[in-house]
Structures are given as C-alpha cells and as structure tokens.
Structure to design on (308 residues):
C-alpha cells in the first residue's frame, strides 16, 4: 500500500493524511482531494466529492470521508437556503461562516455593522427550524426584538417556510405576552427571540429547552456581567459543574503564568507548578470526557471586544 503511494507520488508521501482511512497518501492524491489507493483503488472519472463518496460506498471502504461528505452536503444545502431567503449569493465572509455552521462549530462573528451578521443569524435559525431544530436569538433591546420578529417572518415567507417564532419583549400587551410565554413554556416554537434582560430574569424558563443554535446579537451590549455568560454556557450544554471547572482552569492558568514569570525559583514554587499542571489535566479531562451533544453558539460583535 505504501509502495503504491510512493509510485504515484510526485515528491512525497504523507503519513496519517488520507481523508478516509487516515493512512499513507501520495501528494498527488492529496492535492486532488481523494483518498489513498487502499481506500480507492482506481481514480473515478469524476473526482467530484459525490462521485468519490459513491465509489467508496460501493467498494465498502467508506470511513472518515463520510464526515466530509456530510459537511459538503450540509454546506451546499445551507447556501441554497441562503439564496432562497435573500435572493443573492452569500458574500465570501458569509460563506466562511456558513462553512463553520456546516461543521457545527461555535464561533465569534466579528464584522462591522452592515455586513449582515443579524440577517445571517436569522437565516441559520430558519434553516434549522426547517429541520425541526430549535434556535434561540438573544438581542440587547426591545426595538431589536420587534425588528427581529418582522424580519424572521419576512425571510420565512420568501423561503416558503411556515415557522412559529416566539418573540418576547417589554412592549407586548399583557394577554399577548401571556400567550407567548405559554408557548415558551410548552416548547411549541422553532425560534425563540428575547431581550437579554428577559433571559436574566427568566433564565430557568429558557434553560430547560434544548437549543441547537444560540445566536447572541451584539454581544457587547448583551454580555454585561458574568451571569449572562453563565446562562449562555449552560444553553450550549455545559453544566454548572463544567463552568466551575472552566473558571478554575482560568484561575490556575493565571497563577501558573505568574509563578513561571518569577525570577527566584524555589522548590516550593516548582512543587506548586507541578500541582497546578496535574489539576489542569484532571479538569480538562472532566470537561472533554462528557462528549456533549453538538450545539452551535454564535456571538456577533462589531468590535471584537466583548466587554460591557
Ligand atoms: Zn485511505
């Protein structure tokens, strides 16, 4: 197998690099984006990822390439939906964000006003609503919550999508507010939009639902104080114990950095550093071992400086 890769290679063979089995692969195949010769004996006529996927499946050698295939399919599906909603192709920065969504990654969306961060968040929420998954959108003000409601309905209309967003803000009449809170309580909604104030005052009501996607619009305004951060982390599936572990990691890292910067070294200091390293290892394992269900958190900011 290795020999065959060497024969095919122009210059080098890479180890642990086949996109399907993770084994040896020639630079030539790697550049074409196709798996190694053990996975895919003959190169198919079309090197399109769909053809490659089909052949691997037929030959019974499909492994890691499946994940890549699902990512590519999800991405092209997302782009198609984006065009349905907005009537135009996504810009390159929006394409980058869509790729991250397709990988189910969480990220901070830092871009100046006018790049369409908010609209982007809405489109993703609608896309997931179509798949029967819940989203939560947090905005800093009542005005923005009202605008969100209008925009969500407008976008859904363009994509011929029937969704039921529940939007809660301080300007609702009493009866309307009660009706919407009942919907929130029973979980009969796809998209929830509230102000950050509402989240702070009604956290338990919101935290009991499972959201696939959490979008924080204008994080600089929303995240005033660690309480809001705490709730957002819990929404993303971290338990209070995980968050405590996370806080301890931050404290220990700071202490270790301080101790390492000291000129005078002593046995006592080295011992403490060793203690910190062991504790950090334990805490990291605790968080990673849980294998949480994947959820997506996007925080949008115009400045990239989330401090309020
Ligand atoms: Zn392979």
């Amino acid at each position: 197998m290795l020999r065959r890769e060497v024969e095919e290679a122009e210059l080098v063979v890479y180890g642990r690099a086949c996109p399907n089995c993770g084994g040896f692969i020639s630079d030539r195949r790697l550049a074409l984006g196709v798996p190694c010769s053990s996975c895919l004996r003959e190169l198919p006529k079309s090197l399109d990822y769909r053809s490659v996927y089909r052949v691997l499946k037929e030959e019974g050698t499909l492994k890691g390439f499946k994940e890549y295939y699902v990512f590519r399919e999800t991405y092209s599906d997302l782009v198609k939906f984006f065009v349905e909603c907005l009537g135009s192709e996504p810009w390159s920065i929006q394409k980058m964000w869509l790729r991250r969504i397709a990988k189910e990654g969480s990220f901070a969306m830092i871009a100046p006003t006018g790049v369409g961060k908010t609209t982007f968040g809405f489109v993703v929420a609608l896309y997931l609503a179509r798949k029967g998954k819940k989203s939560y959108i947090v905005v800093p003000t009542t005005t923005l919550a009202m605008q969100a409601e209008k925009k969500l309905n407008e976008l859904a209309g363009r994509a011929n999508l029937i969704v039921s967003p529940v939007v809660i803000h301080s300007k609702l009449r009493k009866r309307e507010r009660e009706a919407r809170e009942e919907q929130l309580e029973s979980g009969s909604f796809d998209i929830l939009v509230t102000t950050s104030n509402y989240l702070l005052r009604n956290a338990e009501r919101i935290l009991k639902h499972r959201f696939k996607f959490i979008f924080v619009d204008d994080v600089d305004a929303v995240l005033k104080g660690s309480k809001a951060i705490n709730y957002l982390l819990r929404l993303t599936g971290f338990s209070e114990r995980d968050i405590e572990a996370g806080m301890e990691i931050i404290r220990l890292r700071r202490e270790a950095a301080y101790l390492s910067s000291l000129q005078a070294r002593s046995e006592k200091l080295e011992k403490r550093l060793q203690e910190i390293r062991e504790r950090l290892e334990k805490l990291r394992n605790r968080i990673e071992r849980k294998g949480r269900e994947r959820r997506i958190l996007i925080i949008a900011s115009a400045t990239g400086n989330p401090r309020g």
